[in-house]
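Good morning,

Attaching, inline, the backbone tokens for the sequence recovery test we're adding to the shared suite. The designed sequence is right after.
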């Protein structure tokens, strides 16, 4: 089964509309939650009066921050031993972003709750608003989080991070070429089709809170709720129905989840919550925007000898996972070039915007946006083909396993072959040799982690429990949540191969903290490799138990047995043997036929934790168990009248290890590509100077539609089986996001001589750049750097200086 493109087991329910999501769940006596959100981005909160709301029809209760101070614990994240407990259910003394929770009501219907919200009176005193991180970190700026740990002087810098590899000062003296540029990335939404939602059901008799959630991790939700509400872990049961997408946005505890739980516990009735699309935009996480002042150091022959970067990282009003994004995304983003000298400084800054956090790619797209453009800029300055300069510097397959200066252990890769494959697929050499007006080619190269040991979580584990039922079917129990990865399908393929059970007879139970083994959840491209390995180990243990029974009954050695076709048989005699249901029956109902001392059960469990390490004090370390490379190449045309970009050709080649289900992996690459496309060509949270989000709906948020996405038919897998994962698998869900923006920027520069340094690249910006380039009569042009009125730095001498070395002592 492994290696076959089996149709996904999950799809029938989705395609027929019978899949059940949180919004489909209704329990008897369910109340509906409405949340009043701030319409201002920064203000002192003087008072909240919900007395009128309590008199509205159907209303059963109301709450604001003053009711819960001292009764509910703040929550947050732990990064590098820096506790960030900056999340609370409601604003109390201060509002720090538009959309923050101010008060809430529960009513018999959703519409009664919404009506009641309109009667709540809120008094505030406005404060200065900081939308961009560069203004928020200036001396004298109002502290956004007054109770936060700002250990780094004035401004809103709450965390600092650095990487030190080699000697960058020596590189400055030895380099034949230095290319440098200020790059800016955008705030991008996860835009899952299903909004965030939950259903809380507290049983006052048993004291158990049953919590249905649209989430990526049942145990992060359970433990977060338990900590915030000071409940025992075994008094909270988290169940996850179908999840309509997440992409990183549902990987943490949110205020609406805590609020729903509190109301259910107070009133003894189920409380249902589904956020509006506007609420998701304003109050849930989005991709962290960054400003990067990046430099690449090279020798004359194109060898990369150094990289330096000063990053201003916009975390939004709260921390969440945001400050880990810059750490992991930059660490892994240095691949697949083993750069010997690296100096990186990052300031993590609070702003009056929605919280930044995990989004498909987890910081690597931001890193590649800078690094892969610098590679092209260096190739142009040295008059080297961009393909050749990458081939010169990339880790080669014959070098593996290799430990990079950053500390990553790359066990296997075909990155070099992936580059050559995509170049050949679009006719790279020929098209560069015969230039066509308004057309260009571009490429970029990435290497993505497979799971990661986060600075805040010293584990990278998944767990599986298998049970052979008495009719010969198999049930899989896992806490890792399927939200598009095809868990029910690829796990069944693994189990079918090892136990010999029919693929159609394997079922994945829904994630449920009352029955599922502990696991971290689904994120970080970890499902196939880490969850799949736990499943493989559990299946092998279950097979061993089956062989013990069969060997006893058949009077045969276990070494001479095989499993297949729903039975265990003597090697080479597949039409003989004992059916799996009979073996299960022995363990369940006829225990006198079991081997002496055999425990009468046919369950097996396994937990797999990767052999990775936490981030070292100097920012280095092997955070992932294995890495998958992806090369992209594009051939595009720019319309000189409209600025519109048209795809003429596009190719993707990856080394995703041993692929369990090629159909699923191809779908992951297509979806991952679309995320990168949106980041490149249109998606962006647009705030005015008062912190109001201007495009908080799908009607005016420029997410790619089906007509914007090219048909990716040139999609290649060049296998590089992992040497560290028992099944040879690697992650594939995020690897095709990161290269897209840099690939298109490089192709645009090749087509029209305009180097875009800010995302997104819209048709309007292309037209503006073309008109100004024509007016100035120049061959090359940077946007927005060369536009009239640009106030940013004109060179490295004008760049803001990173903190001095001794300012980082707290992290060391």
């Amino acid at each position: 089964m492994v290696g076959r493109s089996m149709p996904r087991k999950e799809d029938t329910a989705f395609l027929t509309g019978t899949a059940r999501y949180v919004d489909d769940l209704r329990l008897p006596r369910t109340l509906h939650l409405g949340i009043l959100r701030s319409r201002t981005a920064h203000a002192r909160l003087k008072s909240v009066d919900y007395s009128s709301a309590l008199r509205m029809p159907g209303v059963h209760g109301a709450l604001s921050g003053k009711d819960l101070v001292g009764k509910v614990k703040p929550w947050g994240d732990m990064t590098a031993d820096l506790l960030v407990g900056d999340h609370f259910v409601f604003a109390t003394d201060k509002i720090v972003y538009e959309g923050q929770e101010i008060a809430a009501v529960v009513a018999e219907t959703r519409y009664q709750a919404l009506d009641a919200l309109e009667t709540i009176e809120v008094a505030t005193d406005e404060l200065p608003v900081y939308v961009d991180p560069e203004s928020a970190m200036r001396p004298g700026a109002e502290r956004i989080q007054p109770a936060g740990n700002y250990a780094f002087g004035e401004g809103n810098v709450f965390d600092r991070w650095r990487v030190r590899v080699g000697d960058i000062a020596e590189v400055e003296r030895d380099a034949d070429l230095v290319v440098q540029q200020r790059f800016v990335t955008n705030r991008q939404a996860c835009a899952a089709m299903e909004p965030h939602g939950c259903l809380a059901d507290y049983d006052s008799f048993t004291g158990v809170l049953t919590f249905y959630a649209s989430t990526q991790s049942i145990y992060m939700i359970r433990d977060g709720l338990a900590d915030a509400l000071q409940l025992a872990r075994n008094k909270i049961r988290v169940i996850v129905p179908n999840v309509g997408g997440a992409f990183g946005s549902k990987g943490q505890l949110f205020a609406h989840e805590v609020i729903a739980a509190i109301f259910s516990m107070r009133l003894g009735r189920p409380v249902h919550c589904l956020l509006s699309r506007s609420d998701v935009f304003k109050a849930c996480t989005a991709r962290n925007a960054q400003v990067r002042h990046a430099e690449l150091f090279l020798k004359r022959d194109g060898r990369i000898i150094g990289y330096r970067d000063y990053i201003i990282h916009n975390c939004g009003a709260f921390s969440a996972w945001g400050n880990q994004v810059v750490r992991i995304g930059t660490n892994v983003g240095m691949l697949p070039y083993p750069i010997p000298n690296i100096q990186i400084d990052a300031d993590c800054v609070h702003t009056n915007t929605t919280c930044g956090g995990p989004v498909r790619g987890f910081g690597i797209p931001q890193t590649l946006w800078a690094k892969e453009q610098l590679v092209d800029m260096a190739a142009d300055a040295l008059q080297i083909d961009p393909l050749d300069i990458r081939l010169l510097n990339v880790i080669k397959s014959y070098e593996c396993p290799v430990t990079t200066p950053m500390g990553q252990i790359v066990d296997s890769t075909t990155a070099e072959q992936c580059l050559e494959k995509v170049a050949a697929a679009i006719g790279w050499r020929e098209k560069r040799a015969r230039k066509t007006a308004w057309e260009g080619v571009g490429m970029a190269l990435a290497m993505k982690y497979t799971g990661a040991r986060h600075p805040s979580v010293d584990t990278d584990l998944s767990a599986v429990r298998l049970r052979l039922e008495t009719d010969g079917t198999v049930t899989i129990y896992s806490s890792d949540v399927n939200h598009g990865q095809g868990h029910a399908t690829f796990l069944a393929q693994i189990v079918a191969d090892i136990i010999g059970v029919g693929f159609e007879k394997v079922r994945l139970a829904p994630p449920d903290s009352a029955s599922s083994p502990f696991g971290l959840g689904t994120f970080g491209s970890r499902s196939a490799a880490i969850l799949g390995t736990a499943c493989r180990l559990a299946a092998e243990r279950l097979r061993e138990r089956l062989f013990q029974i069969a060997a006893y009954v058949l009077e045969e050695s276990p070494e001479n047995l095989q499993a297949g076709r729903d039975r265990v048989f003597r090697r080479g005699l597949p039409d003989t043997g004992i059916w799996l249901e009979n073996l299960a029956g022995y363990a369940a109902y006829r225990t006198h036929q079991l081997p002496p001392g055999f425990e009468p059960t046919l369950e097996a469990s396994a937990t797999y934790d990767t052999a990775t390490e936490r981030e070292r004090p100097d920012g280095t370390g092997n955070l992932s168990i294995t890495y998958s490379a992806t090369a992209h190449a594009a051939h595009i045309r720019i319309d000189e009248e409209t600025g519109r970009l048209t795809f003429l050709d596009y190719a993707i080649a990856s080394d995703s290890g041993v692929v369990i289900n090629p159909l699923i992996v191809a779908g992951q690459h297509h979806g991952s590509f679309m995320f990168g496309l949106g980041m490149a060509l249109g998606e962006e949270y647009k705030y005015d100077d008062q912190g109001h989000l201007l495009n908080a709906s799908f009607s005016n948020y420029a997410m790619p539609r089906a007509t914007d996405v090219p048909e990716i038919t040139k999609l290649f897998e060049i296998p590089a089986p992992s040497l560290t994962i028992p099944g040879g698998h690697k992650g594939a869900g995020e690897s095709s996001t990161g290269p897209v923006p840099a690939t298109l920027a490089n192709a645009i520069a090749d087509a029209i001589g305009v180097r875009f340094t800010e995302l997104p690249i819209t048709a309007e910006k292309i037209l503006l750049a073309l008109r100004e380039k024509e007016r100035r009569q120049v061959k090359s042009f940077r946007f927005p750097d060369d536009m009239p009125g640009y106030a940013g730095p004109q060179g490295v001498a004008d760049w803001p200086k990173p903190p001095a070395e001794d300012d980082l002592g707290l992290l060391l």
